[in-house]
Amino acid sequence: MTDNCNTFSTIVAEAVSGSHVIKIAGYSRIKVLLRNGESLTSIPFSVAGHSWTIRFYPNGDSAESQDYLSFYLILDSANSYDVKVIFSFELLGKNGRSVSSYSFTTDLRTFSYKGSLWGYNKCDIKVFKEIYSQETKGVHSKFVEVPPSNLHQHLGNLLDSMDGSDVVFEVGEERFSAHRCVLAARSSVFKAELLGTMKEKADGAIQVDDMEPGVFKSLLHFIYTDTLDTMAQEDQSRDEASEEEDLVMAQHLLVAADRYNVERLKLICEEKLCESIDSSMVATSLALAEQHNCNGLKEACFEFLASPSNLLEMMASDGYDHLKTSCPAVLKELTTRFLPPETKASEEITIGLYN
């Protein structure tokens, strides 16, 4: 009798698939920033227990591919060997679906060890989005473009039209209409004056003394729009006279902003003056800094006056006499910080400071 021993085995070819979506914004900027041979790499992602990355060359990986894009799939697992893969690169349209004319599928490739890569070095594709890689949960088409806030424009139009205005200010020979609630929301001083215990009882115009109409107009414009209608942005076509007018306006607006506690406007004016210190303006700016508690402007003036030549030029400027009479403590501090009495030069300058 013969014993029959039959055995069986099954060969299973198991395949695991996965995908990773890369979004790259600002493709045109990337092509300018990265030269031929320079690349971006995605964050690692896992498929079939192996770690992978995708390397992208926006201007090609070599001289022969410099007019194309290059894409490579890279095995990133340290303990993975001879991994056989069929993979594809696909461009996704706005609907999130693959664009067939820009899809590339490989034959079977073997990734022998960590760092092995396969891909395409000549892909003529001109879309993609972002200069950094980040993990995303899906591709979302953008059907709605939200415009930037235009609240400041609407409030500016409200100021210009005077619709619903309920308060009038008289500044010099000019009158300005405004809205109590807007002013109160932007300035604690206006809030107390218009809505609080200091509220004006009379129906007539509120008198504003010691301020030019143009300055008050700019103050109102900033309160409504958070922007300046004066002090124009830097422009090479602007002459020195225009720049000087901007600086004078910045000085007056700083005083107005401090008076009505509009802190952001005060800081904008202080920054403008810090950036424009010269021998003709430094005395006036230093006096403003002392009188209106602008520590940054004060330090900027002191830094400028650390130079003896700048100090001497300031002493010859129109604003120096006002500085001496209004802020003598500042001159004393200036002498203490920068003029050691043992040097002859400093003695001469010190005498000039107090004469």
Automatic annotation (TrEMBL):
CDD domains: BTB_POZ_BPM_plant, MATH. Residues 165-232 form the BTB domain. Residues 17-132 form the MATH domain. It comes from Oryza nivara. Pathway: Protein modification; protein ubiquitination. SMART domains: BTB. Belongs to the Tdpoz family. GO terms for biological process: protein ubiquitination. This is BTB domain-containing protein. PANTHER family: BTB/POZ AND MATH DOMAIN-CONTAINING PROTEIN 1, OS02G0311150 PROTEIN. Signal peptide: none annotated.
